[in-house]
Design a protein that fits this description.
The chain is mainly α. Helix content is about 65%, strand content about 5%. The longest helix has 25 residues, at about 740-760. The protein is globular, with a radius of gyration of 30 Å.
Length: about 800
């Protein structure tokens, strides 16, 4: 996608810095000495680990490198570009795989509307090109929003209650326990310049309008561009009805799409009139034109026109109140459907069940008939792709097939009219239960990349299977087993959503529910409780799971549940009760050869040995065994968690440099998973170690990163901890003057007062003893500087501050930029 309207691209700052350093004949150490900054800082900038140099750092580097005025301008431009890239977290717009034809006038008019009004809805009939036009508008207007535009596809969202969740998912905003998701989303967009594209709102128009109105009312910089077959009818909306293409545009589109299937095709003097007539009969609707053009490798233009005319005459009855273009579009779809072979029709109809597309293997299992070979279904899929009825997207090396949304509703109608519709839906749910159980089994042995890829791409389809099985006349037992089998997905991707499905499954429990199903549900409940750090629920669910697994004769399941119960007891400060459960579970895990379970248990024992028994040697041994197992099976997330635990262990033992090394490795691994909350927690520990080592500049940089991530994802406790780190840095490092020391100490005390209030409000405590020690040292430092009465007054003031005020104090008062280098 072209960079229309954006800033010109600049060379990567790190590469440019390295170029100038080498040209000056300087090592990193020599440049660091000249610029009066750390060698690690120079290295981080060159490698791209630190992408946003402070203005003062930039000036020091430029002076040390003796840059010419022209070089300085390029240097500053590269830094500005890197800073923009570093802070841009909104997902990119979908990249169009086909050229955008025509629409120059309409696009220019919509761009102008979007610049004057905060809510613009592009309306029009199905297939008229609303989505692609909106994406084109967003591309051209990118400069107005610093390139921040996010696409939210609502076509596959069947429940109006999921509109907010779809927007949050597109923006990577996570649900927070105890807080409405819309409130969380509003806080995220409140101060961001952002263009939000809500695509295909027509079947959710009331909820889409309500959510858009709420978000716009709470944010001054947000703008919304919606597409729908009808307007949202909300305050401040400007509607733009997208017309069909004019004849020249339609002919150009037909020619372009025809060349995609027959590269020899061209519009000539001999065929121009028949092509134009075809486009007129299709009312200039882009999707209809593309469908017809996809047939030029099978039919002559004359045959194409005849078949199309016959079909349109046959299917123009429709509902009298339906728009003519909607009738025409349906006729076009009906015509395309009528040309399919029986097997192609069956596959086309059954694909309508899939919300997230599917692989060819799953398509064969659901869309094929009993005994039909996978290759036969694959041939049908390929034919449907060629005829532009379905799309094939290459996802991480494997094609996934999906219906164009314009056809999905039509295909569902056809499927529901068949006698075997219920059986096909049951087969679909059964296939996705099998896939969930495969993931559950292979989680023990597969690398994180393998199972996370499956989970990420199939989550929407699992939702469809759960919706069918746990509501109406579905298969409740299947749905209950599916909820339980997805425990790993709930743990790592959507614990709060998992809790909702779990509640639905538990409502269907009765006296006939087998112990094995109850065990599965209780264990999933325990995993979800741990994910949201509800230790009491974690313990009670684990104990129920133990009893059910034992009743079902499942020793491995019981051992897993015992591990969770022991973990919960240690977290609740009852390690004397938890330790025996862990040891008993470990013996069973070793006997049965469950390697991931062994690793999890010994990691828990290592944590207990370090935190409660203060036995560093034993803790290291346990952690080493866990690391060996996790590395062998490619469990990178667990490797990172274990490294973070080892850092805490070594920090407790006074080995600060080793603790920092472990924390750096953990953070580096977690960054690859693009999971900001996990990274923020690990960075929090790393910041603590840097402060203890007196490396205040690096600590401040990391604390600010934690603060930004935590605020974006509403991790209230982590926000407080990041602010405590910034306060500690200011309290521990000497000020430039006595007057400055007094001002800083008062600000530090106010910030600590806010931190105390935040912990009290959330019912939380500091994550471990070292953070409490950091807090105590900070309080002692400000007591020594300004006296206890002044500190008490300042902390009382801080307790009444809002988060925005506390952050302002942190950034503007206790650690002003000029003192950082």
């Amino acid at each position: 996608m072209e960079n229309a309207g954006g800033a010109p691209s600049s060379p990567a700052f790190g590469m440019l810095l390295r170029h100038h350093r080498l040209a000056a004949g300087l090592s990193q150490e020599a440049l660091a000495e000249r610029a009066r900054i750390s060698t690690n800082g120079v290295s981080a900038l060159e490698r791209g680990y630190r992408r946003t140099p402070q203005r003062e750092t930039l000036a020091l580097l430029a002076s040390a490198l003796a840059l010419t005025p022209e070089e300085l301008r390029e240097f500053e431009a590269a830094a500005a570009h890197s800073a923009h890239a570093a802070h841009e977290e909104t997902p990119a717009l979908p990249t169009a795989l086909t050229s955008f034809i025509g629409r120059e006038t309409q696009v220019a008019e919509i761009v102008a509307l979007a610049r004057r009004h905060r809510l613009v809805t592009v309306t029009g009939s199905g297939g008229v090109g609303k989505t692609q036009t909106a994406l084109r508008v967003a591309t051209l207007a990118a400069g107005d929003y610093n390139g921040s535009a996010c696409f939210v596809g609502l076509a596959s969202v069947g429940d109006p209650r999921l509109v907010t969740a779809a927007i949050a998912s597109a923006l990577n905003v996570q649900e927070i326990p105890g807080r409405p998701l819309l409130e969380t989303l509003l806080a995220y967009v409140r101060n961001k310049p952002l263009l939000l594209i809500l695509d295909n709102c027509e079947h959710l128009v009331a909820e889409a309008a309500s959510v858009a109105e709420t978000l716009l009312a709470g944010s001054t910089q947000l703008r919304v561009l919606a597409t729908s077959r009808e307007s949202l009818r909300t305050a401040g909306e400007r509607t733009y009805r997208l017309p069909s293409m004019n004849e020249d545009e339609a002919v150009a589109l037909f020619a372009d799409r025809a060349r995609a299937v027959d590269h020899h095709f061209a519009v000539t003097e001999q065929n121009e009139e028949i092509v134009a007539a075809l486009c007129r009969r299709l009312d200039g609707i882009p999707l209809a034109i593309e469908l017809a053009a996809a047939r030029v490798n099978l039919l002559s233009l004359q045959a194409l026109a005849k078949k199309l005319d016959d079909s349109l005459r046959l299917l123009t009855g429709g509902e009298r109140m339906a728009l003519p273009r909607q009738q025409t579009m349906r006729a076009t779809i009906e015509w395309s459907y009528a040309l399919l072979e029986p097997q192609e029709r069956r596959v086309f109809e059954r694909l309508s069940l899939f919300a997230g597309g599917c692989t060819v293997e799953i398509a064969a299992a659901v869309c094929g008939d009993e005994g039909e070979a996978e290759v036969d279904v694959f041939c049908a899929l390929s034919s449907l792709v060629d005829k532009s009825l379905i799309v094939a997207n290459l996802v991480e090396g494997q094609p996934r097939y999906a219906l164009l949304e314009s056809f999905r509703e039509y295909a569902r109608e056809k499927l529901s009219a068949r006698d075997d519709a219920g059986g096909v839906a049951h087969r679909y749910a059964r296939v996705y239960l099998d896939l969930a159980e495969w993931l559950e089994r292979n989680y023990e042995f597969e690398s994180d990349g393998a199972w996370r890829t499956v989970a990420r791409h199939e989550l929407d389809n699992w939702r469809v299977a759960l919706q069918w099985s746990l509501t109406g006349d579905g298969d409740a037992s299947l749905g209950q087993n599916l909820v339980g089998a997805l425990r790993v997905v709930w743990q790592y991707f959507a614990p709060l959503e998992g809790a909702r499905w779990l509640a639905a499954a538990l409502r269907r429990v009765d006296g006939a529910t087998p112990a094995s199903v109850l065990a599965r549900l209780s264990f999933a409940e325990a995993i979800i409780a741990w994910s949201v750090r509800d230790h009491n629920a974690h313990l009670s669910s684990s104990e129920r799971a133990i009893a059910c697994y034992r009743a079902a004769g499942d020793r491995l399941g019981a051992a897993r549940a015992q591990n969770q119960a022991g973990h919960a007891l240690i977290a609740l400060g009852r390690s004397e009760e938890g330790r025996p459960l862990l040891r008993e579970a470990l013996a069973v895990a070793r006997e049965l050869g469950s390697r991931r379970l062994i690793a999890y248990i010994v990691r828990c024992l290592g944590w207990d040995s370090s935190a409660n028994l203060h036995d560093v040697v034993a803790a290291r041994g346990y952690m080493a065994e866990a690391l060996e197992i996790y590395e062998a099976i490619g469990a990178e997330l667990n490797v990172a968690f274990t490294l973070n635990d080892l850092g805490e262990c070594e920090f407790s033992a006074g080995n600060l440099d080793l603790a920092l090394a472990y924390a750096n490795r953990a953070v580096s691994m977690l960054r690859k998973f693009n999971d900001a909350p996990l990274v923020a927690h690990a960075l929090d520990s790393l910041t603590l170690y840097l402060i203890s080592l007196g490396r205040y500049d690096e600590a401040r940089e990391r604390a600010l990163e934690v603060l930004e991530m935590a605020r974006d994802h509403h991790l209230d406790v982590v926000v407080a901890q990041a602010l405590q780190h910034l306060a500690a840095i200011a309290a521990f490092r000497p000020a430039a003057s006595a007057r400055r020391q007094e001002e800083t100490s008062r600000s530090v005390a106010r910030l600590l007062g806010f931190v105390d209030a935040r912990f009290a409000a959330t019912g939380s405590t500091r994550l471990h003893n070292q953070q409490q020690q950091e807090y105590d040292r900070s309080v002692a430092a400000v007591h020594a500087a300004i006296g206890e009465p002044a500190v008490a007054i300042a902390m009382t003031e801080g307790a009444t501050m809002s988060e925005e005020q506390a952050v302002a104090v942190a950034l503007e008062k206790i650690a002003p930029r000029k003192e950082q280098m």
